[in-house]
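User: Could you walk me through two proteins back to back? I'd like the raw sequence and the structure tokens for each, with a short line separating them so I can tell where one ends and the next begins.

Assistant: Of course. Protein one, sequence then structure:
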Amino acid sequence: MKFSTGIRMLAFVLASLAAGAAVAKEPPRIVILATGGTIAGAQPKEGEPGYKAGSLSIGSLISAAPGIDDLARITGEQIASIGSQDMNDAVWLELAKRTNELLDDSMVDGVVVTHGTDTLEETAYFLSLVVDSDKPVVLVGSMRPATSTSPDGPLNLFNAVAVAADPGAKGRGVMVVSNDDLFAAREIQKTNTTDLQTFVAPNRGPVGEVYYGKPWYFGVPATRHTVNSEFSLDGVTKLPRVDIVYAHQNADGALIEAAVAAGAKGIVLAGVGDGNASRSMVDALAAAAKSGVLVVRSSRVGSGIVRRNIEIDDDELGFVAALELNPQKARVLLRLALLKTKSADDVQRMFREY
């Protein structure tokens, strides 16, 4: 009797272990959302440098990456088929909505977004502020079109899926994979027109690397993102207009006045040096701030911190200092901030935290 009971218990344990093993072997489920870009670009004539972005479907991109199906159970959706120079608010809102819907599904483990490199850093940062999930979201693009002699897209996409499928990527916020490097959305910046190693993180460096589908992480972002973000797009159908004005030698206030006349709710200064500008520009910005337009000082130089009250009295003029954010990232944060507040003090707090 005891022998029979022992056999039954052993059979039960073995069956439980087998069931657990079966569950453990279930592949991650990753959804790729395609928006176009060079990674989906096609040349009109083989060997020529010109190409049309967003020509190929997401199915074509997946089939061009050998071994990608071994990483995860993959499905794809075509959100847009554009070059990222044409990325717009309608696509942003749809992309954010669909990303949140997918990540809210228990059957989805992560999302990959294919994107052109020109505005990839802006979309990545936008998503990092409005995605309400700690599941991985990974953006990926390429510098060479899909039909080129040696395209970089297939391996970039392979690595992006590998990161999205990795349990270790959970809670790290929105990331970008490019040329074996892994970047936080807030930190990434495009620095070269055509080189494969165009993306860098000038202030804080990459957060990891991915070598043939094997992620290696260095750290996690120190700023707020995703599930810890206060921003939401619930009920939002339109984002406030924010313009960037570029400081240069002999600049006047004409472009600032034009931005205000066009209905800008915020203006970001791409300033010289430490977010500085000519007296004419500063006077025009001060007038804009006095009329209720939120003014943020950033810098055109590419790295460093724009601090408050160094050469310009931000307290007196009602300006916000962008700190580490470059002009294009500062614009993204300011647009979302304006959905919540018109207070320069509140917006400055957001620039410290995000």
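----
Protein two, same layout:
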Amino acid sequence: MQDEVYQVKLDNIFEGPMDLLVHLIKKNEVDIYDIPIALITDQYLVYLEWMKSMNIDIAGDFIVMAATLTQIKSKMLLPAHAGDDDQEDPRLEIARPLAEYLQIKSAAEHLAERSLLGEDTFVRIPGQQEFSADLGDEIIKVGLFELIDAFQKILVKLSPDERVLITAESVSVKDRISELVDVFESKESLTFDELFPKNAVKSEIIVTFLAILEMVRLNLIRIAQHIQTGVIRLFYL
């Protein structure tokens, strides 16, 4: 058991492959109908490899999307036939479902903003007030890939060393979750950076990140980002 690798299972709590595509498209500021497919595919594969290295369980849908992107990338490399103006852009294979997904997601978000029966009549949802108390209306929901970007910025500040293997022998994510719960019970909310001490070693930083993912999955914390400052804050529920 001591050699067992600790693995975080997201269990559909975080986003799927379409959300990763949306994240990359927004990050690169490109149009969904004019996707630089080679760039997006390469970045997508980097995210997948990074999640695997962090022992984050990746659903099969991510692998299917990677294969689809790679296939489209290959098609884009083929020379176009002269005079064949009716040849369809291979990128539409992903652009069309992506556009439909964004429409559905937008509609779902609008429905989520509507008052639910009993929400304001009976018992207040734990942590709801604290979630918006400091950030006002200028907040956005933070997903897995925004967290990954923020975490990678923290890792960049560390000196390069060998890959850290997270095992049951070397570290306990459950223990780190207990420590974080104690911190949140005294402060209720913390910024993302505050959870990573400057003098912490790389293994401690990685465990903290995995613990945060587990706490989101267990619905112990909620995460938001201030639009103007970009500060990510975690709220204890």
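The chain is about 50% helix and 5% strand.

Let me know if you want the two compared in more detail.
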